[in-house]
Amino acid sequence: MQDLSNYRKSYDKSELLESNIPEDPINLFNRWFHETEDFGGTEEVNAMTVATIGLDGFPKSRVVLLKKFTEEGFIFYTNYNSEKGKAIANNPKVCLSFFWHSMERQVIIKGIAQKTAEIVSDNYFDSRPDGSKLGAIVSNQSEVVPSRSFLEENLKQLESEYESMVIPRPKHWGGFLVVPHEVEFWQGRPNRLHDRIRYTSQDDFSWKIERLSP
């Protein structure tokens, strides 16, 4: 047993005030993302946690990479037959979260996931290195396999099969667009009086902005 009650940190790098935020969360996310990229010292600023409700009724979170964000929402790619893909097909309500510890910031996004258009998935797949393309084909993501060597041998076979050929995107692999319903920004502050600002989508396509108690 290890007691972690003395693990403490003072948060004092920045602040989040209503007087200095845009009317929509995508603009604020864009600002925070690039500030973290430029000044935060984070290697993979686009790493995010995706939480879903599984077919077994349990929530499950895993880290994936955000590949694009626009005014519509946030896009990542996966195997649609994977555990997360099946969970999203069954219940498209998901939660994304970013924790940029070097900037003492966190963003939590509740939204609805939907498959991207096939042309979007095709274009992204075509931009990937051949090794990543073949990895997407060879892996029946989330399925039990007998060994590591089983995967490696299958990959070698595919490398030989597709040598000097265009590698097509498998139909079971593609993007999800998460359309945000609620976006919360958390900025660490001294004495645990952290700043929490929540944007909630309204029926008229505007955003309601509220401050939450830490």
TrEMBL record:
Q: Which residues bind substrate?
A: R8, K9, S10, Y11, K67, Y124, R128, S132, R192, L193, H194
Note accompanying the cofactor annotation:
Binds 1 FMN per subunit.
InterPro entries named in the record: Pyridox_Oxase, Pyridox_Oxase_CS, Pyridox_Oxase_N, Pyridoxamine_oxidase_dimer_C, Split_barrel_FMN-bd
What residue stretches are annotated with the Pyridoxamine 5'-phosphate oxidase N-terminal domain? 43-157
Record carries keyword Cell inner membrane: no
Q: Which cofactor does it need?
A: FMN
Q: Looking at the Swiss-Prot or TrEMBL record, what is one Pfam family this protein matches?
A: PNP_phzG_C
Keyword RNA-binding attributed: no
Keywords, comma-separated and alphabetical: Flavoprotein, FMN, Oxidoreductase, Pyridoxine biosynthesis
Describe which pathway this protein belongs to, using the record's wording.
Answer: Cofactor metabolism; pyridoxal 5'-phosphate salvage; pyridoxal 5'-phosphate from pyridoxine 5'-phosphate: step 1/1; Cofactor metabolism; pyridoxal 5'-phosphate salvage; pyridoxal 5'-phosphate from pyridoxamine 5'-phosphate: step 1/1
| Gene Ontology BP, a term | pyridoxine biosynthetic process
Q: Which reaction does it catalyse?
A: pyridoxine 5'-phosphate + O2 = pyridoxal 5'-phosphate + H2O2; pyridoxamine 5'-phosphate + O2 + H2O = pyridoxal 5'-phosphate + H2O2 + NH4(+)
Give the Enzyme Commission number. 1.4.3.5
Coiled-coil segments: none
Q: Superkingdom of the source?
A: Bacteria
Where do the Pyridoxine 5'-phosphate oxidase dimerisation C-terminal domain residues begin and end?
A: 173-214
Q: Which residues bind FMN?
A: R62, V63, V64, L65, L66, K67, Y77, T78, K84, Q106, Q141, S142, W186, R196
User: What molecular function terms (GO) are annotated for this protein?
Assistant: FMN binding; pyridoxamine phosphate oxidase activity
Family named by the database record: Belongs to the pyridoxamine 5'-phosphate oxidase family.
Q: What does this protein do?
A: Catalyzes the oxidation of either pyridoxine 5'-phosphate (PNP) or pyridoxamine 5'-phosphate (PMP) into pyridoxal 5'-phosphate (PLP).
Quote the subunit structure annotation.
Homodimer.
UniProt xrefs under PANTHER family? PYRIDOXINE-5'-PHOSPHATE OXIDASE, PYRIDOXINE-5-PHOSPHATE OXIDASE
What's the name of the protein? Pyridoxine/pyridoxamine 5'-phosphate oxidase
Q: Which gene encodes it?
A: pdxH
